[in-house]
Amino acid sequence: AQKVTQAQTEISVVEKEDVTLDCVYETRDTTYYLFWYKQPPSGELVFLIRRNSFDEQNEISGRYSWNFQKSTSSFNFTITASQVVDSAVYFCALSEAFIYNQGGKLIFGQGTELSVKP
Amino acid sequence: DAGVIQSPRHEVTEMGQEVTLRCKPISGHDYLFWYRQTMMRGLELLIYFNNNVPIDDSGMPEDRFSAKMPNASFSTLKIQPSEPRDSAVYFCASSLPGTSGGARNTGELFFGEGSRLTVL
User: Fold this and answer.
1) Do A35 and B91 touch (CB under 8 A)?
2) How far apart are CA A54 and CA A96, in angstroms?
3) DSSP string across A57-107
4) How far is Cα A25 from Cα A22, in angstroms, rounded to an integer?
5) Which residues have C-beta within 8 Å of that of residue B40, sequence separation ≥ 6?
6) Is A75 on the interface with B (CB under 8 A)?
7) A102 and B CB contact within 8 Å
8) Predicted confidence (pLDDT) at residue A102 exceeds the cutoff of 70
9) Could you report the per-residue pLDDT of A21-78, keeping only the tens digit for each?
């Protein structure tokens, strides 16, 4: 069975601090996809990144970076020099390949609420 | 391009009433998903459709919930009768297949803004 665990329910930091959001997943598939979504206070879900299980290269996009480690089944997300606008709930999600290639059914973690204070 | 459109954005109703939530997916997307978000259970997949056909409804909580997709541009999620524990934000999402040849896609689900349901 697939499962995504985000152990950190809430994190509070002060602006300009770096923060890492943890994500651990379980799957029996050898091919799968991992995602991060952001849910700002306005409520919509915004796609941030997709990673497939064959690509363990870390990715950086501006202040955001992602560290994918198959050996520990983790896909952690780091925000560098956090800003107040980063305050949101962040969800990690998993899609197994067969399902993914049939349209993208995602299993979400419980989410981590990040609060960035000025 | 218009995104996924959901209506109503907010609904307050009394226990026992019928509730109908509506969704218009992005044009050209073959898949449509209904998710429910609550504090206790997070984001749960209720049901999803491929080309208007329900593929997996194992997440539908009980017979009071039903979903339809009469055509490629419209889906409904109905709760009858509603109960206070159904209070949640209901999200609709659509997507292209991850390997859709010739169609631009990045493999993610495109979510609507959600319908916040409160059952008193």
Assistant:
1) no
2) 13
3) --EEETTEEEEEEGGGTEEEEEESS--GGG-EEEEEEEEEHHHHTTT---E
4) 10
5) none
6) no
7) yes
8) no
9) 999 999 988 888 899 999 999 888 998 988 888 888 888 889 999 999 999 999 999 9
